[in-house]
Structures are given as C-alpha cells and as structure tokens.
Amino acid sequence: MERERIHDQWLVLRCRNGDVEAFEELVARFERRLFYYVMRMVRDEASAWDILQEVWVTVLRKLKRLRDPGAFHVWLYRIAHDRAASRVRGEVRREEVEGAI
After folding, report:
1. What is d(CA 47, CA 52) in angstroms, rounded to the nearest whole number?
2. I need a surface site. Which of 15, 25, 42, 67 has the fewest CB within 10 A?
3. 27 lies in which domain range?
4. What pLDDT, on a 0 to 100 scale, did the predictor assign at position 97?
5. Is the pTM of this model over 0.90?
6. pLDDT confidence bin for 90, thresholds 50/70/90
7. CATH number at residue 13
8. What confidence score (pLDDT) does residue 100 get?
9. DSSP string, 18-54
10. How far is CA 61 from CA 15, 16, 18, 58, in A?
11. Mean pLDDT of all residues in the chain?
C-alpha cells in the first residue's frame, strides 16, 4: 500500500512536468475504480464514461495546482464526485422542468 502511494506521488510529479506516459499510467491505475465509483452515482454507463472524460481533462488542466502529490487520490475522487453530482443535479432539474410542462 505504501509502495503504491509513493508510486502514485511519483507519477503525479512526472505528470506535472509534462510526462505523457506518467499521465497514461495514472489513468490506467485509477480508471476502473473511478468508473465504478461514478457508476454508483449516475447509474448510466454512457454518462459515467462522459464524466470520466471530463474528470481526466480537469486533472490535466489543474494538476499543477495540486500542492500535495500525496493528496492526489482524494483530489481525484473529489473531482469525480463533483462532476457526477453536477450531472445528477442537472438531470433532476431537467426532469422537474419536463414534468411541469
């Protein structure tokens, strides 16, 4: 466990320096678990994949702002949670509007 955490931190640092292979490895390491996490929230496979794509784009854009590479795991899941929750809220609002018409 400790070894994996250190390896993840190393990958994050490499990503921050523009290493594409390190980013690909991060995606490979986290995508399956992240997909199931998002699926539990949105319950739709296509939406879950869309959200994951948004998550990884956000990670690419904001990774340099992450102060502590050791917090990557928590930070990544927070992004995924926020994206999924936003999608669910949007769907609920759309259903409410459609129901009111």
Report:
1. 9
2. 67
3. 2-100
4. 67
5. no
6. confident
7. 1.10.1740.10
8. 65
9. T-HHHHHHHHHHHHHHHHHHHHHHH--HHHHHHHHHH
10. 11, 10, 11, 5
11. 93
